Amino acid sequence: MTTGTPGALDLGKLFAARLQAARVRPYLATALFALHPVESRQVPTMGVDRYWRCYVSPVFVDRTPVEELAAVWVHEVSHLLRDHHGRSDRVARERGLTGPGERLRMNIAADLEINDDVYGDGLVRPEGAVQPDRLGLPVGLLMEDYLRRFRLGAITQRLAWLDCGSGADGLDRGWELGPDGAHGLSDQERDLVRFRVAQGINGRPGTAPEGWRRWAEEVLHPPQPWRELLGAAVRSATSGAGSGDDYSYGRPARRSAGVPRAILPGLRRRPPRVCVVVDTSGSVSDTELGSALLEVAAISRSVGGRRDLVTVVSCDAAARTVQPLCRAEGIELVGGGGTDLRAGFDRALRTRPGPDVVVVLTDGQTPWPAARPACRTVVGLFPRQRSSGSSIEHDPHYRPDTPPEWARVVTIGSSGG
Amino acid sequence: MPSQTSLVTPASPSGTSQLDLAADLLTLLREASTEPRADTQLEALTLAVAADLPVLLWGEPGIGKTAALTQLATALDLPLTTVIASVHEPSDFSGLPVVGDDPAAQGVPMAPPDWAVRLVRAGRGLLFLDELSTAPPAVQAALLRLVLERRIGALRLPPGVRIVAAANPRSSAADGWELSPPLANRFVHLQWTHDHDVVVRGLGGVWPRATLPRLDAEKLPEAVAFARRAVCGFLSARPGLAHRLPSGETRRGGAWPSPRSWEMTLRLIAFVTAADSSRDVLSLLVRGTVGDGPGLELLASLDRMDLPDPEALLADAAGAVLPERGDLRQAVLDGVVDAVRKRPERDRWDAAWTLLVRALETGAPDVVVVPATTLASLRREGWDVPAAIERLAGVVSLSRRADDATRRAAVATGVRR
């Protein structure tokens, strides 16, 4: 722990910094202490690998004040907690990004995601930490979004020394100990550390900043792409008893002739009828509606529905129009103003022949039918951010109507599709 | 054209036909060696099947589920029967009604298919129901009865037959296949993924050979005791997790906690312990049985169960072995200090100091700071400071250094904010 030999790693300083980091960010203490420091002369500053080892340059520790080292500890552990290496690998596969240049961009994007909200409140910003505003980018985005918004060029040139190790961008470095080296954490151990930190943050929500609370929420309840969920809900609703392909004894099977004494059911096909009720009140934007409507049409086609079996009811305070989807020019959405979806439900259920499924696209700020309708219901819900607490302040009795129990609700987000 | 004539020619000058050559080429292509490789998901599958629990493999088509099942059948020494659900009719599983001479007197027997008869006659085997999710709903209903009640028509599958089913993920299933919560609760859900490296290496001629877990006869009673302690201890601390129906669209069709699935978990923990498999394997199984959240919580509590008992450490402070990982070590030291606080006695207090010194000598000093501070505050009147405490002087200076840095950082961030 002494600094006797010149050039040796000053562990005392490094651990004092970790202690400070754990004091100012108590909810990260578990993760900070789970990191195993490894002295390395090849790493430019500090870097982590995906097995939760932290490589430290002795020179860097010598020339950096304790409080800045503390910030670097938090920065590095954030890479691991937010699974930047796994996400980098996924992005690389999905977008076909190869080569060290792309990995450097991922490292920068990951740094941007961390740096835009991690410092302050007792944690100094380390010298040279890359900030979104220096690249002319907005704050608060995810690594994947940042990655779309900048290229390597003159402005990122001076960041080329930047290197947080494979824990940040998934690219293995020469100095790293690899999967078989000592003091690595297994998959399951890493999951558990993450889980514990997330639990700690959720248990004491007041202390952690917004960014970490959102992260903890996602660790415990990872978000799912709404397109897939909506698809699954609509498919499941349309393929229930009475529609779709299924066997029925109501008609003999074609292979009955070959097995004379056996009674075989026949495959019967009845394509599902889908009625989409669209909330056209002023509060839902056209783009949102358009994308969701297209999605429903595509799904119902994929389950064997014909275009003429999909009808659309646009509805604000009253149900306006009923149109089949087969009109080439697309769907006319009429409306604006307030919403009463009960009218839309009535209209949808009165169409003959009756629908197998009603899909409702709405922001949910509407009264709902009191009784369960006679067919399955899927609600695509556009989440509405209420300006924090203000509506409650003005009207303490205000409570938005939530979709009823009998409907399957899929929250339609802007991302993740 | 010359190429055509050469194929038509019955024999080449050497006397071998083109088809013989083709067969040689095919033999060469088939030649592949194997290498041992740890395969967590196959190990998990083997243990679940050995534990006689219905397993549902979730995975995209064409990623080697069948190959895995072949390996599993070899390991368990069971003949493999594969049934592709989507090409069968419901009557193939529930039995074909065959009308006899006098149905009123004899009844209508449900004739089972030939593979079922063979399976029952053999008395043992591995039945793999592939492509469960692409079959029409009536077929799926019949299959689920087969899995859960082990009946095909009038036949009952003998206990020596193990069943594994496979399905495509909900989002990519061709139609709306999903399990209702009661059904989902009866399965161990395993997510089947392919490892890119394994596939590339396999195509290059070297396939992995998994060494599969073997149960250790001597460990059986101990395994049962451990499993009971783990699950009961956890559930008495978290009674809310004993039964929790899945809510919301994202969790639908997956694993969730109930007394039934906890009983399955208990069985799986015993099997994993008896086979001495890794925590990664256990993690897959537990999360596939009670769901991610409760599964992770149980694993976290197992992690704590593995930690040395504070009382045992206090009893033998000189010979104590502390965990290497910093976060676990801190948890142990906190536990020790807590034990002293509950029963403050002079010799326990001294023993705790010895433990802290040991921790300091064998690992990072920052972990010791908080327990040391707390332990110092537990001092009673008349208790002399033990000699060992002098060796903790480094910790005091470390703490002071962190304090200074915290103060500087607070000033700096205060100015910047």
Automatic annotation (TrEMBL), chain A:
Gene3D superfamilies on file: von Willebrand factor, type A domain
Domain named VWA-like is located at 274-379
Q: Which InterPro entries match?
A: Put_metallopeptidase_dom, VWA-like_dom, vWFA_dom_sf
Among SUPFAM superfamilies, the record links this protein to: vWA-like
Q: Which domain of life is it from?
A: Bacteria
The record's Pfam families line, in alphabetical order, gives: DUF2201 (PF09967), DUF2201_N (PF13203)
Identify the residues that the record assigns to the Putative metallopeptidase domain, covering every copy: 15-267
What's the protein called, per UniProt? Metal-dependent peptidase
UniProtKB/TrEMBL annotation, chain B:
> Which Gene Ontology molecular-function terms are recorded?
ATP binding; ATP hydrolysis activity
Q: Name the CDD domains for this protein.
A: AAA (cd00009)
Q: Supply the SUPFAM superfamilies for this chain.
A: P-loop containing nucleoside triphosphate hydrolases (SSF52540)
Per the record, the domain of life is Bacteria
Looking up InterPro entries in the UniProt record yields:
ATPase_dyneun-rel_AAA, CbbQ/NirQ/NorQ/GpvN, P-loop_NTPase
Ranges for domain ATPase dynein-related AAA come to: 54-187
Name assigned to this protein = AAA family ATPase
Q: Which organism is it from?
A: Streptomyces griseochromogenes
